[in-house]
Amino acid sequence: MHKNAPNPRTRRGRIAGFSMVELTVSLTVLMILTAIAIPSLMRSFRTYQLNDAAARFSDMLKFTRFEAVRRNTQVNFLILPSGTDWIAGTDSNNNGSIDLTEKQILINGVVTLLPSGTPPSPASILAKLGATSSLDASRSGAAGSLIFDARGAVSPLAAYVLYLGSTTNPEFGYRAVILLPSGATQIWTAPSGGPWQRIG
After folding, report:
1. Residue environment code for 163-187, b if the CB has 16+ CB neighbours within 10 A, otherwise e
2. pLDDT single digits (tens) 33-44
3. Class of domain 46-198 (CATH, top level)
4. What is the pLDDT of residues 55-101, one digit of tens each?
5. Using H for helix, E for strand and C for coil, what is the string for the chain?
6. How many CB atoms lie within 10 A of CB 24?
C-alpha cells in the first residue's frame, strides 16, 4: 500500500511552475520578437491609413459625380480646411458650403492633404496618362472646389491631382487621387523618393 502512495516531494516539484531563469529567458525572447515586429506593424498601419484616406476621397468624388448625373445638374465638390484637418464633400445644393446633411468626409490624423511640391514629381503619372496631359495640383492642400457638370465630366475640362500623405512621416510614402476630365478617378502610390504607380 505504501508503494502506490504519491511522493509529496515529487508532486510539489511538478506544480511549482517556471523557474526564474526560464521566465527571464521567455520574457527576453518575447521582447526581442516584439521589438522586431513593431516597426513592421507601424508601417502596415500607416499604409492602411493612406490607402483608406485615398479610397474615401476617391469615393467622395465618385459620389459627387453620380449626384450630378442623377440630378442632371451641376454639383460642386468642396475641399475646406477645418483647423489642421480637411473636410471634403458634396455641395448638393450648391450654396458654397458643406451642410451637416450633405455627404462629407474628414481627413485628419497622420494623413492630410498635401500641396504640390511635397510629394515626388508626377512625371511618371503624366507619362502613363499621355504626353499631352497636364495635372492641375492647385486644389491639393488648398481650399477650393471641383465642378461636375450634368454629364459627370469635370468643368472646365482638366485633370486634377490631389496628394495625400503625412507631413511628419514622409517615409511612409504618398497617395495621389487623379480626377480625369471625364470625371473618372484613379489612385496612385509612391514611396518618398518616387516613382508613382497606379493602384486603383
Report:
1. bbbbeeebebbbbbbbbbeebebbb
2. 888 878 888 888
3. alpha beta
4. 999 999 999 999 999 999 999 999 999 998 999 999 999 999 999 99
5. CCCCCCCHHHHHHHCCCCCHHHHHHHHHHHHHHHHHHHHHHHHHHHHHHHHHHHHHHHHHHHHHHHHHHHHCCCEEEEEEEECCEEEEEEECCCCCCCCCCCCEEEECCCCEEECCCCCCCCHHHHHHHCCCCCCECCCCCCCEEEEECCCCCEECCCCEEEEEECCCCHHHCEEEEEECCCCCEEEEEECCCCCCEECC
6. 11
Q: In this predicted model, which residue has the larger pLDDT, 43 or 190?
A: 190
